[in-house]
Amino acid sequence: MLRRPVAWVVAVVLFAEALGVAALNWFLGVVVDRQDMSLAGLDPDTMSLSSKIGGVLFGLYFALCGLVALLVAVRNRPPAGFGRVLLISAAVVHALLGAFAWGLVGWPAFTFMVVVLALIVLMLMSYDRPVEPADAAPPAQAPGPESGDGDAGAPVTPPPAPTTP
Q1: More confidently predicted of 35 and 25
Q2: CA 16 to chain centre
Q3: Higher pLDDT, 159 or 65
Q4: Which residues have CB under 8 Å from 120's CB, separation 6+?
Q5: Are 17 and 116 in contact (CB under 8 A)?
Q6: Could you tell me the CA-to-CA distances from 154 to 39, 58, 140, 142 in Å, in that order?
Q7: Secondary structure of the chain as H, E, C letters
Q8: Contacts of 2 by beta carbon, 8 Å cutoff, 6+ apart
Q9: How confident is the model at residue 33 (pLDDT cuts 50, 70, 90)?
Q10: Looking at residue 151, what is its pLDDT?
Q11: Residue of 108, 102, 126 lying closest to 10 (CA atoms)
Q12: pLDDT tier at 153 (50, 70, 90 boundaries)?
């Protein structure tokens, strides 16, 4: 089926993205540190340090999302609880980053973000329903009029509402 390969691809992409985001922000922090320029009176050392810390934290976030996707791929079971919330938040982050990338960077970055968003959503949706084995027995039917129980399966309707003249 398609579920496991998609989960593997999502895990690899999220790990690569974690490394890329952390490296990019670290590089930007180094550039700000070497420029030694102030932006609206902010200390360059503070901007450099905050860029590096933000990159590491954002990279760890994507790495944690990649770990959840890796566990989904290895176990072949849907993410539950915190892992599911984490993957949904990663999908929302990619949607927002895609919207910003369209205006700031261009369509290639937008396309990448939308593809990652689609992969995460596909992984979440493919594990949404439990897979039934082919040799499973059909589900038992509730008693109804065709089973000889009379009105047992008929829907109950409320009495008509009273009207005032």
Answers
A1: 25
A2: 16
A3: 65
A4: 10, 69, 87, 90, 91, 94
A5: yes
A6: 73, 56, 17, 11
A7: CCHHHHHHHHHHHHHHHHHHHHHHHHHHHHHHHHHCCCECCECHHHHHHHHHHHHHHHHHHHHHHHHHHHHHHHHCCCCCCHHHHHHHHHHHHHHHHHHHHHHHCCHHHHHHHHHHHHHHHHHHHHCCCCCCCCCCCCCCCCCCHHHCCCCCCCCCCCCCCCCCC
A8: 126
A9: confident
A10: 58
A11: 126
A12: low
What is the token pair recorded at 32? Answer: 């700000």
Residue for token digits 């082919």? Answer: 134
Question: For 51-93, how does the pLDDT look when each residue is reduced to its tens digit (9 = 90+)?
Answer: 999 999 999 999 999 999 999 999 988 888 899 999 999 999 9
pTM of the model: 0.72
Dist CA 41 CA 67 (whole Å) = 40
Distance CA 63, CA 18 (A): 5
Flag whether pLDDT at 101 surpasses 60. Answer: yes
56 residue type, one letter: V
Q: At what angle do helices 44-75 and 107-126 cross, to 10 degrees?
A: 40
